[in-house]
Write a structure and sequence with these properties.
6-stranded antiparallel barrel
Length: about 260
């Protein structure tokens, strides 16, 4: 799968500037600090590794970056200093104020990153490591299909907000409740479909998968970007290839998480 990395990549420390409960199931955490002056922001669905101190740790310790990257060094860290690490899409970057917005899905019974976001206060420390963008449409496509559950909503909104004015696309955003639906500033040729779930026990992504599969697709060559709980991108990719003859090379599919499986770090 193709990915475009920023030219500058280094571990950075930042601190919480403010938080906002965007909707009942989303919270935006704004972080800032002088080290963000070196942040190489690409926009679109660019993600960032977020490092958080674990309970009981007196301070946040970041792994060094070597020629082999940061992860081998991270695995070598002792349990009492190894931080949590998660991957999140960036919603906004202000190079003048040196502030960065990261939007978290807020679950009352969620993982450590969700819990941290809900409890974050001004001055809390966080570590950042820039990653790349996966939204890389090839030339020659006629329209875009963009699909995701709530874990992909920040990326999808960022992509649409930065889309060229002549983009033709269908966008499907699945969210937990109707109160999580927001206004999205999209080009005239972009159809935005918010899909709030009716049953809270439904696996995220199922509604989006069923909705897209039952909808007629426009003619022409599409570029598809699909992300969320692993069943959505893998299942929809399979259906698009088998039933619609879409080339695998024209589909970017990203399993952000898997139901019932906790992140390992």
């Amino acid at each position: 799968m193709r990915i475009q990395f920023p030219n500058r990549r280094q571990m950075m420390h930042a601190r919480v500037v403010r938080t906002e409960r965007t909707t009942p199931h989303f919270v935006t955490v704004t972080v800032g600090g002088p080290e963000l002056a070196e942040f190489d922001f690409l926009g679109l669905d660019q993600c960032v590794r977020v490092f958080l101190a674990r309970p009981g740790q007196e301070r946040l310790t970041m792994p060094p970056v070597t020629e082999k990257g940061w992860y081998p060094e991270y695995r070598k860290m002792a349990d009492d200093v190894r931080p949590y690490v998660r991957n999140y899409t960036m919603r906004r970057f202000d190079p003048v104020a040196m502030e960065l917005d990261i939007e978290f899905v807020a679950h009352d019974d969620g993982g450590p990153a969700s819990e941290w976001a809900l409890l974050a206060r001004e001055g809390d420390e966080v570590g950042l490591y820039p990653e790349g963008i996966y939204y890389l449409p090839p030339s020659g496509t006629d329209w875009h299909l963009l699909v995701g559950d709530e874990s992909a909503v920040p990326a999808l909104m960022s992509i649409v907000e930065q889309a060229p004015h002549d983009l033709r696309a269908r966008v499907y955003l699945e969210v937990p409740t109707p109160d999580d639906v927001r206004t999205l500033d999209a080009p005239a040729g972009v159809e935005v479909h918010w899909l709030p779930r009716e049953d809270p026990r439904t696996t995220p992504g199922r509604l989006a998968l069923e909705t897209v599969c039952s909808a007629g697709l426009p003619k022409g060559r599409p570029y598809c970007w699909i992300a969320g709980e692993s069943g959505l991108p893998t299942g929809l990719r399979r259906r698009l290839v088998r039933e619609h003859g879409i080339s695998k090379e024209d589909i970017t599919f990203l399993g952000y998480w898997r139901e019932g499986v906790a992140a390992v770090s």
